[in-house]
C-alpha cells in the first residue's frame, strides 16, 4: 500500500479536499488515497436522478459506507433539478431535433465540477476538489495556465469528456488516479481493504445503465412517430418508429433488407425521415464545431495542426482547426471552428464532441454542428462518387 500512496503525494502541504464519491471503486480509491496521505478529506455525493429506486441509490449507500470505513464526513447534495434541466431535457430536446447529444461533457461542467467546487467553497470551507476520473492536470509556468492531459492509462482516459472545464476548475481540481492504470486502482482498493474493490465497472453513460438503453430512456419522454426510411435518392426502403432511435453512421436496427450494408446518412426532422446510404456516404472531410472551449491554451487566431477525437472510443486523427468566429465577451473565446480532417472520417455525428489534442495535452473542444439535410445528402453523394 505504501508504494502506491507515495505516487500521489503531489501536494506540498496537508489541505482540506472535497472528493466526489459515486460509490464506485475509482472515486473510493481517490478518497482513500488522499485520506491516507493525511489530507482533511470530505466525501460528497450528488443525488442526480429523480424517481424512486433511480440512479444514485446504490452508489449513495456505497459512498456512505466508504466514508464510515475511512472515518470521514459525507455530504449529499440534491442535484436532481439541475440534472433534469441540464442533462435530461438537453438530451430529449436534442434527439427530437435529429442530433445525438453528448451529455457527459455538459454534465461535468454544469452539474458536477462547477457546483461541487461552489459547494466546497461556500459550505465546507474547502478550496480543492478531487474525483476518480482518469486524466491529469499540470501547471505551465510559461503560459500561466493549468493544462488538461490524457491519463497514463489510455484505455481509461476520460479527458475527452473533460474538455469543457475552465481554468478556475482546473486550478482547484485533482485527479489522483491519472498517473496509474485501472488494474493498479483495483489492486490499491484491495490493499486498502475497500469494500468497493470488486465492484463491477459502471457504464460510461449513467442514463443507459439505469434505463437499459438510450432508446428505452427516450421512449419515456418521446411518443412513437412513424415515418419513412429512404435512400439518398428519396426512394422509400422501409419504416421507422421515431427518429430519436437513430444516429449518424448507425447500421444495426434499420430493419431493411438490401444487397449491401446501409448506414444512416442524415435525419430529416421536417419530413420525419431517416436517410440511409452506403458506407462511403457516411465519411466526411470536415465539420463545424460550436460552443468551443479552449481549456489548456488561449484561443488561437490562426489555423493550427492538431489531432482530433470525434467520439470517446475512437482514436485522435490529424486535422486542421480553423477559427471561424469570436465571441463578444471580454476574453474573446472562439465560439466556432472548422475542423478539416487530413482524411475523411466515418460517422461525424452532430451533437457529439470534437476534442483536439497536442500529444497528450487537451487544447480544446466543442460540439459538432448539424448540417442542413440537403447539404448532408449532397456530401454523402459526393463521397460515394469518390469511392466508386
Content-based structural category: alpha/beta
CATH architecture of the largest domain: 3-Layer(aba) Sandwich
At CATH level 3, the topology of the largest domain is: Rossmann fold
Give the termini distance in whole angstroms: 59 Å
Basic shape: globular
What's the CATH first level of the largest domain?
Answer: Alpha Beta
CATH homologous superfamily classification of the largest domain: HUPs
Mean of all residue-level pLDDT scores: 89
Rg calc:
22 Å
Helix fraction, binned, reads 25-40%
Q: Order of strands in the sheet with the most strands?
A: 12-15-14-13-16-17
Instruction: Report the sheet-strand fraction.
Output: 25-35%
SSE run? HEHEHEHHEEEHEHHHEEEEEEEEEEH
Count of beta strands? 17
| Number of H/I helices | 10
Q: Tell me which oligomeric state these chains represent.
A: single chain
Task: Please indicate the count of domains.
Answer: 3
Main sheet properties: 6 strands, antiparallel, barrel
- Residue runs with pLDDT of under 50 for 5 or more positions: 1-12
Detailed description of the structure:
The protein is an alpha/beta fold and 388 residues long. The protein folds into three domains: 2-210, HUPs (Rossmann fold, 3-Layer(aba) Sandwich); 223-277, Adenine nucleotide alpha hydrolases-like domains (SH3 type barrels); 281-387, Elongation Factor Tu (Ef-tu), domain 3, CATH 2.40.30.10. Helices cover 29% and strands 29% of the residues. The chain is built from ten helices and 17 strands. It has helices at residues 2-6, 25-36, 57-70, 80-96, 103-124, 167-171, 182-191, 206-211, 214-219, 373-387; strands at 16-20, 40-47, 74-78, 128-130, 135-140, 145-150, 173-174, 227-231, 236-240, 263-268, 273-277, 283-294, 304-309, 317-326, 334-346, 353-358, 361-368. It has a six-stranded antiparallel beta barrel. It has a five-stranded parallel sheet with strand order 3-2-1-4-7, with helices on both faces. β2 (40-47), α3 and β3 form a beta-alpha-beta unit. α2 (25-36) packs across α7 (182-191) and α4 packs antiparallel against α5 (103-124). The longest helix has 22 residues, at 103-124. The termini are far apart.
Amino acid at each position: 500500500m505504501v508504494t502506491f500512496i507515495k505516487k500521489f503525494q503531489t501536494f506540498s502541504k496537508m489541505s482540506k479536499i472535497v472528493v466526489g464519491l459515486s460509490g464506485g471503486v475509482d472515486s473510493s480509491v481517490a478518497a482513500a488515497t488522499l485520506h491516507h496521505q493525511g489530507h482533511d478529506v470530505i466525501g460528497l455525493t450528488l443525488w442526480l436522478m429523480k424517481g424512486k429506486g433511480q440512479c444514485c441509490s446504490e452508489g449513495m449507500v456505497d459512498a456512505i459506507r466508504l466514508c464510515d470505513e475511512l472515518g470521514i464526513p459525507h455530504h449529499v447534495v440534491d442535484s436532481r433539478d439541475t440534472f433534469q434541466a441540464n442533462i435530461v431535457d438537453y438530451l430529449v430536446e436534442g434527439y427530437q431535433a435529429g442530433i445525438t447529444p453528448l451529455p457527459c461533457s455538459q454534465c461535468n461542467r454544469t452539474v458536477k465540477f462547477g457546483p461541487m467546487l461552489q459547494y466546497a467553497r461556500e459550505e465546507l470551507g474547502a478550496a480543492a476538489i478531487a474525483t476518480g476520473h482518469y486524466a491529469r492536470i499540470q501547471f505551465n509556468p510559461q503560459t500561466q495556465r493549468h493544462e488538461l492531459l490524457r491519463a497514463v492509462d489510455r484505455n481509461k482516459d476520460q479527458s475527452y469528456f473533460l474538455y469543457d472545464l475552465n481554468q478556475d476548475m482546473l486550478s482547484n481540481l485533482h485527479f489522483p488516479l491519472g498517473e496509474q492504470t485501472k488494474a493498479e486502482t483495483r489492486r490499491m482498493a484491495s490493499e486498502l481493504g475497500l469494500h468497493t474493490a470488486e465492484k463491477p465497472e459502471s457504464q460510461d453513460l449513467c442514463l443507459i445503465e439505469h434505463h437499459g438503453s438510450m432508446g428505452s430512456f427516450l421512449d419515456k419522454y418521446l411518443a412513437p412517430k412513424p415515418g419513412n426510411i429512404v435512400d439518398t435518392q428519396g426512394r422509400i426502403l422501409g419504416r421507422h418508429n421515431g427518429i430519436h432511435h437513430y444516429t449518424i453512421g448507425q447500421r444495426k436496427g434499420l430493419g431493411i433488407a438490401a444487397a449491401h450494408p446501409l448506414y444512416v446518412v442524415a435525419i430529416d426532422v421536417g419530413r420525419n425521415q431517416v436517410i440511409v446510404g452506403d458506407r462511403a456516404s457516411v465519411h466526411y472531410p470536415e465539420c463545424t464545431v460550436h460552443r468551443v472551449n479552449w481549456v489548456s491554451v488561449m484561443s488561437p487566431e490562426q489555423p493550427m495542426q492538431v489531432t482530433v477525437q470525434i467520439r470517446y472510443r475512437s482514436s485522435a486523427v490529424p486535422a486542421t482547426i480553423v477559427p471561424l468566429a469570436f465571441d463578444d465577451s471580454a476574453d474573446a473565446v472562439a465560439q466556432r471552428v472548422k475542423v478539416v480532417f487530413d482524411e475523411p472520417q466515418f460517422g461525424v455525428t452532430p451533437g457529439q464532441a470534437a476534442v483536439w489534442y497536442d500529444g497528450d495535452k487537451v487544447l480544446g473542444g466543442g460540439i459538432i454542428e448539424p448540417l442542413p439535410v440537403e447539404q448532408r445528402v449532397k456530401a454523402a453523394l459526393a463521397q460515394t462518387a469518390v469511392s466508386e
